[in-house]
Design a protein that fits this description.
With 142 residues, this protein is mainly β. It has a single domain, classed as 2,3-Dihydroxybiphenyl 1,2-Dioxygenase, domain 1 (Roll), CATH 3.10.180. The chain has two helices and nine strands, in the order E-E-H-E-E-E-E-H-E-E-E. Strands 1, 2, 3, 4, 5, 6, 7, 8 and 9 form a nine-stranded mixed beta sheet that branches. Strand 7 and strand 8 form a beta hairpin. The two termini are 16 Å apart. The mean pLDDT is 84.
Length: 142
């Protein structure tokens, strides 16, 4: 397996997923699984926000990048309402650096409640694309 992580100073990073908004979850899952040979690696049924989420890819999400398909994003006016996600070894350290660099936050650093993340923050890249940053409870490959 190719090492998909990258170190920058004391921090380690790993690409986790790309989120794509979809209008019809069944149609999207059929396309990615039947036509492109991916497998469904995880699903989350409608939460309080009305979104349904399926993760598809070519292997386990803990060790391989996946697509996060979300139906019910509520962003019809935006042609791209997706994001990429990057796991980082120490998100508090990275957020301090990002603040010093003047990076704009979409969602400030928070301690995650439940789930597999310890900390989460969302930032914007220079072109306004959103990037989800997270620190996993059990390391980069969990």
């Amino acid at each position: 397996m190719v090492d998909e992580s990258k170190s920058v100073g004391e921090l380690e990073f790993r690409f986790r997923h790309t989120m794509l908004p979809v209008s019809d979850m069944a149609r999207a899952v059929d396309f990615y699984t039947r036509i492109l040979g991916m497998q469904v690696v995880r699903t989350r049924d409608k939460g309080s926000d009305g979104r349904t989420i399926s993760y598809v890819g070519y292997g386990d999400e803990g060790t391989n990048p996946v697509l996060e398909l979300i139906a019910g994003t509520g962003n019809a006016e935006k042609p791209w309402a997706g994001h990429i996600a990057i796991a980082v070894s120490d998100l508090r350290m990275l957020c301090a650096t990002l603040e010093k660099e003047g990076v704009r936050f979409a969602k400030p650093l928070i301690e995650a409640v439940g789930g597999s993340n310890t900390y989460i923050a969302n930032i914007y890249d220079p072109d306004g694309f959103e990037i989800e940053l997270n620190q996993r409870k059990d390391g980069l490959y969990s």
